[in-house]
Amino acid sequence: MGDVYEDPLAELALRLRTLRAQRGLHMGGLQQRTGLGRTTISQALNGQVVPSETTLVALAKALGTDVGPLLALREAALRQPDVSPVRMVRRPVRPKVEPSFEERYLNYVAERHSQLTVVGLDLSRPDRARWPLDAAYLSLELAERPEGWPAGGEEVDRPPVMVKRAESALAGCRRVLLRGLAGSGKTTLLQWLAVATARDELPEELAGWRGQIPFVLPLRTLVRRGPLPGPHDFLSAVGTPLAASQPEGWADGVLARGEALVLVDGIDEVPQEQRGATRDWLEQLLAAYRAAQFVVTTRPSAVPEGWLASSRFTELSVRPMSTADIGVFVGRWHTAARHSTATAVERAQLHDLEAALQVTVRAQRDLAQLSSTPLMCALICALHRDRRGHLPHSRMELYEAALSMLLVRRDLERSIDVPEGIQLTEHQSIQLLQRLAYWLIRNRQTEMDRATALALVSDALPAMQAVAEQGTADQVLTHLVGRSGLLRQPTMDTFDFVHRTFQDYLGAKAAIEAHDFPLLVNNAHDDQWEDVIRMAVAHARPAESADLLRRLVKRGDAESEHRSRLHLLAAASLQYATEIDPDARRLVEQRARHLMPPRSQEEAEELAALGPGILDLLPGPQGLEDDEVSPVIRTAAAIGGDYGYAFLQRFVQALPADTPPSAVVGGWENFEADEYARDILRPFKDHLSLDVNTRDQRNALRLLEPNFDVTFRDDFTDEEIIEHLSPEHTHTLRIYSGKSLTDLRFVRQLPALTELALAECSQLTHIDDLAGLQLSSLSLLQFPDEVSFDALASLWDLTELALYTRLPWASLEDMPAPLDLTALRLARWIDTPLRGVSKWQHLEELVVNSTPTPAEWREVASLPQLTNLYISQYDLAQASPMHGVKHLQLSPTDSDAQLELVPEIFPNLETIFINCRASLPDITDITPLKRNTVLQISLHYAKSVVGIEEFTSGTVHLYPRPRTTGA
Hints:
- The protein is α/β, with parallel strands linked by helices.
- It is 40% helix and 12% strand.
- A 13-stranded parallel sheet has the order 13-14-15-16-17-18-19-20-21-22-23-25-27.
- The longest helix has 20 residues.
- The protein is globular and about 90 Å long.
């Protein structure tokens, strides 16, 4: 290129931005196409740093341009005297101006959390196995089980989950409880939030979170240091060097002004008996600092659903990585490995290994299932590299191979004989590490102080003469940190394992060697010990594993409170045993059958965690109750793999003709979209309500035409939405991620459409394109505040309207909806009083999620045809009697469901549905309802119910349906 530019870096950034604008790509689209991190792309587009060659190649490919001119500009930029490919500081210190404490703290957070430790990335130097967060962060999918969904009736009729990318799922939330399995990326997500907030680099979706001050609070550290800290001690409790410089009252002021983002990591790492105190600590902070934002993480089984619901926390779950996510992660791991590799030969080998692994994880479903978390995916990448393309097949073989790889093999292969003057065999290293791990498990900690670690190593050395002769306990401990790749030193005074999984593996081995079977069984009900128990069965000899499983079953038989957990844990452990006594296996499977078939989504997830072996115990469709068919399908789908798919094919082919078609859709996202559409869905295609979460599923719609009822949950353009829809047949369309929609003209191409739902349409300013359409049902969710709803007046056929968004009117009196409405559903955040609701005299159904005033209650009571009422955040003490209401749904969010007021306010009630998922405490007393002798009562997720014996058989219905012994 002959042109000479005064600032080639600025010219390069300009060209990239121009190309992006010409292609009409959003940041999310570029991320998806390139596999690059958001910050990496942002820096390249804004000229903040000189991008790497890999970054430019990926961007050029995504933008459809020749990379040559871009690389030439990059080379010119590197020749500039003051330009380097190192990150430019976003908050430069002005000359002669002392930075404020806040600036210093934000810079510290950005620097402290800007890198990840990645298992196996640099095997020769574990201390260098660090990955820049910008390149490492992968936006995973989060699932939300929506509460107060804009449809009344049974919860099983509502969408089970809403799946979104992390940025979109977190948007609009101020308090989040994030659940995820070990290694699923919870801590990495918190780390990314902290760094992106500190650098003021949060994406557009999280614009409402910008300007916050992040506080990263790992509970593993806090609980070890004594009472949980108040705001002024946040920094000192986590060892922040700036703590002594903190101005008096600074943290209190940040929290009080609503400028704090409090990131609390690892509820599961708090001992069970201390979790109540931890919740009290959180609730005290929430009460004192109502405007602050909180994100709290936990493993799924550590706390029950609704644990923080009374404090208005949104519960999100980290989803397993999709096939596409795994592909992106594999690419990034190998890119990072190439950057840390010295020779051209090794870099070439890494290119070949990456290409081979990309094919393998797609072709082998069992391997794809193992690769579904970032931790396991990184481990598989490292083992694939270390073993030149050969991989173990089971999880335990994977851990065993990983330990061998991380402890000694790489040092031997690279002729690193006596690093730090210490030489340990693999067995010696494991003996010392498992001693440390077992201490942590027994004491319910994931971190120990230096004195404890030294004492444990010192106690071991007299029996390990060959090790003791090489150095002191301090030197041996230093060697384990520097060379094992398993033990690390997060601060000068603390030690922990690089991941909890390795701690559990090594601790379980120590427990078996110590014959501590009673200790294992006595702690088996504690979620912190679940993985330890499974791995102990794997480490044990055949007679020992059979004994351990029998003990688990026996304790479960004796303790009804823990029966399901213990029997499920025994069943889950079967797949870990290399050899098991047939009688012991039959005993465990017999108890597992008592938990079959699953009757809810939660039970399906619990059973799926047991692995493929559980498929042999799942019953076929004959004889199943209505609430069991869909959970069985979801169990097999969550297990996945060839076994899961074969089970589903047999199961679906044998379904009775009157099976609700919605039951078969639940497994679509777990398998290849076209294959599932052809084999599983096509026989039901005339009656399906389809959920489309991915591009592959959207493309597979062509195999299921004509489509009558379709829900799009990912971000699609109007052309992508309309392509496979039949104008003459599509009567229901739901778009739950409408960020790409700039208008609604495309809807007019569907003349048969009668039901429409739209959500997150952030670019819309009006709904005028809907005017005059023959819609009978319209749902609008999470629209921009400034959008115009004037077109409601011209939807003359509208009878059902759901508004789950902020409304522009001073009251409902001003809302221009047709007067013939029979159903009106309103969210708690509409910010519009109910005054005026009585103008819709034909209303038969009303959903209200905000607390009505006495005057508003009176107006609701005046509706002459109202028979169905659904309320949450209510105060029945303010309500007027409603003689016409026949069907009532309550979703209490605090300790008082006010059931004693129901008979007098609703004297003619026929059915009552009580959703107890978010209510506290865990006991629901339905005794007051016995005054109504004809009432049918349904309770969902009621943990403990008082008064059932007061009602006749068949009057009270529980979901999930409880099991009797042996049923």
